[in-house]
Amino acid sequence: MATEAGGAVLVQAGGHWDARNVTRLDQQLRGLAAGTGAAVTLDLAQVDRLDTAGAWLLYRTRKELRAHGGRADYAGLTPAHEAMLEQVAANDQPAEIEPPRQPALLAVLDRLGRGAVDVVLEGRQQIAFLGLLLLTLAGTLRHPGRLRLVPLIYHMEKVGFNAVPIVGLISFLIGVVLAYQGAVQLQRFGAEIFVVNLIAVSVLREIAILLTAIVVAGRSGSAFTAEIGSMAVNEEVDAMRTLGLDPMEVLVLPRVLALVITLPLLAFFADMMGLFGGMMMCWAVLDISPALFLERLQGAVSPWSFWVGMIKAPFFAFLISMVGCLEGLRVARSAESVGQQTTRSVVTGIFLVIVADALFSVFFAAVGV
Fold this sequence. Notes:
Number of strands: 4
Shape: elongated
Helix content: over 70%
Number of domains: 2
Radius of gyration: 37 Å
Distance between the termini: 95 Å
Strand order of the largest sheet: 1-2-3-4
């Protein structure tokens, strides 16, 4: 029972304050805590029984009244009641409740579903960015004066000329490995001379361009994301838009064109270094002279074996640069986001390159090339 006198409220509690009556008592006390801002005295002199549930209701009510700026105190406490309230106050430490765990099968299905949705959304964003990039490229072709030549040449040097050592070294070593492994296998059948065919077809059609694209995706694609992402963190991209500059023209298009121009050149260099490495290993292991290697090379492959790899290069370059720039523009304003999007750029770029290579292989097989 609550009585008010002189701006103070006296709450006289009586009877049994235990778990059996906690629902009824909770409703009454919540109404008191919500509607009272004056000084409140909780008189417990008439309480016959008090357990931890009732003590918690009293403690919580006093805590909520004080949190709203009012005064709340106990009166008529017996030693047993005081000890119970002190114990409840000492244990007022909210614990984190673990959410219920899903069954293993439902958890797997949930992850698969979320992953499928993420893939669809990612595909939509990449297609939308591809359309925007093509529109920007079309506008530049109509107005060539809008193309920024200095950034274009600068990025051609960074993604092309500076990548020559690593691309050449990897291609040379791959040619050496192919020649050695092929020689070990073909020597069993006395067909060592066909190592030249193996090297030529593998390097020119698949290995050289695929490894070059993977190296460029890890080297240049990540650099595009990190550079544009750092500009986004520093709000330089927003500043460009404020000044009326299109980031697609200023940041994206020079990088895309630079990689589309230079990757075929890197692929050609990788072809030559791969064949050179294979030729050196054949000379050292199989005693096939360079002259014999070149003579056999002319009869082992057709011009299409070379052009198949070269045709793939600009498409791979476009995919790598598009993904790198897209992930850079999606960077949030934090250093952690730069790292996450850079990693995402490399993984997505390599994945798209491998998918595109598989599609090209099916297409060339279907047309008989």
